[in-house]
Design a protein that fits this description.
This protein is mostly helical. The chain is built from one helix and no strands.
Length: about 60
Amino acid sequence: MSPGTRATSANRPSVGKNKIAKSVVYGGLRYFAPIFLASIRIELAKAAAAWSTAALSIVS
């Protein structure tokens, strides 16, 4: 390696704490974020349905 050139590249990552490429991390976030948000929405919808059912049973 000649002076002034980088020792790291996409094919030869740096050695240290961050061994996972950013693209892998961000790709995982783009994949799992919608799944996670959908599961939250489902749980909120279940809670709202249970709440409205309970409210209707109290009124009746």
